[in-house]
Write a structure and sequence with these properties.
The chain is mainly β. The protein has one domain: Porin. It has four helices and 17 strands. The strands form two sheets. The chain has a 14-stranded antiparallel barrel with strand order 2-3-4-5-6-7-8-11-12-13-14-15-16-17.
Length: about 350
């Protein structure tokens, strides 16, 4: 009996390890980075005129200032409350993003660090814990992923109106995953998991921008190589993402410079709480001789029922060319809900 019991235990343990190792986890969405972009609800690939062009559209290097540098921190969580009745963990994720970027004409250097904590149902076909009759005994997989990306961005003008750009990245991932009862899981515990050895891959983004006076058109493909990483028993994948955008900028009058933009994802991105494919519209205006910037926008996840969210953002000049940026996003499109701050220097 002891031998049989030991055999069953080993089989169960192997099954758990196999499920965890094969469970893919997406480490980020497009809106994970960029405080100005997030303040415009993610309508930014045709704007991309500061150092965050290294993330949003590498072709934007040609449309920005001579020098730009950004230090930022932001966080998002879906849903805002990761536990349901009785303290049972729900499918959820939390992302914390930090970044430092610096750009000069046709060259950008960037470092981004994203930590993603997730709670997912155990197995690909299992119902969510909220659907279980015995919620406390439902099994979930908690995971923690740290993605670090070191990037070099270059751009090249083609004639008067077109720019092509690319960001080549060295990416490394450290991850960990455990299974537990839903009543014992939380995003805080997932965040504190001890991650395994890192796995490294190269990645590539490609962007294009066309400018005709006040009108800009853009197309970007992120994660062209679709890198995948194996660390801590978890397979982490960066799925290919594609986004198109248009922006129109005008100036003069009491309002000052005004930019209106629209973006649309062309592909789905899988997340712990379901696939996302965003459309977004946003606007930004500068006041008081560019000492104050105000922006806002609306985004929606078009997978399934329409779920809109709104964003508000602002910039305040500490002195000429040095700004503090901030944004907050909230609403039904929970995959983008969060806040962030940044220090940005341009001249």
């Amino acid at each position: 009996m002891r031998t049989a019991s030991t055999f069953v235990s080993h089989v169960c343990l192997v099954a758990v390890i196999v499920v965890v190792q094969r469970a893919p986890a997406s480490a980020q969405i497009y809106e994970s980075v960029g405080i100005r972009a997030q303040g415009m609800a993610g309508a930014f690939v045709a704007v991309a005129d500061d150092a965050t062009a290294t993330w949003w559209n590498p072709a934007g290097l040609a449309s920005g200032t001579y020098f730009s540098s950004v230090i930022e921190y932001g966080t998002t969580q879906d849903p805002a409350e990761a536990t349901g009745p009785g303290g049972v963990a729900l499918p959820s994720w939390r992302s914390g993003a930090r970044g430092f970027t610096i750009t000069v004409p046709s060259l950008g250097l960037s470092y981004y660090r994203l930590q993603v904590s997730q709670i997912q149902p155990f197995g690909t076909t299992a119902p969510t814990p909220a659907d279980r009759q015995d919620q406390g005994r439902a099994s979930v997989v908690s995971s923690s992923i740290v993605l670090q990306e070191f990037g070099v961005t270059v751009g090249q003008s083609i004639g008067r109106h077109f720019v092509l750009g690319t960001t080549a990245r060295f990416a490394r991932v450290g991850a960990a995953a455990v299974t537990s009862d839903a009543t014992d899981a939380s995003l805080d515990r997932a965040e504190d998991l001890e991650r395994g050895d890192t796995d490294n891959e190269f990645d590539l983004d490609v962007g294009a921008m066309a400018a005709f006076n006040a009108l800009r058109l853009a197309l970007v493909v992120k994660h062209v190589t679709r890198p995948s990483f194996s660390s801590g028993g978890l397979l982490t994948e960066l799925p290919r993402q594609a986004r198109a955008g248009v922006a129109v900028t005008g100036g003069g009058g009491a309002v000052g410079q005004l930019t209106v933009a629209f973006d649309a994802d062309l592909l789905r991105t899988p997340m712990a709480t379901g696939d996302v494919r965003h459309v977004a519209g946003g606007a930004e205006t500068w006041l008081a001789g560019r000492r104050v910037g105000v922006r806002g926008g609306v985004t929606a996840n078009t997978v399934g029922d329409a779920r809109p969210s709104g964003s508000l953002g602002a910039s305040v000049a500490l002195r000429k060319g040095t700004y503090v940026d901030a944004q907050v996003t909230g609403g039904s499109d929970r995959s983008t809900n969060g806040w962030g701050v940044a220090l940005r220097v341009t001249y």
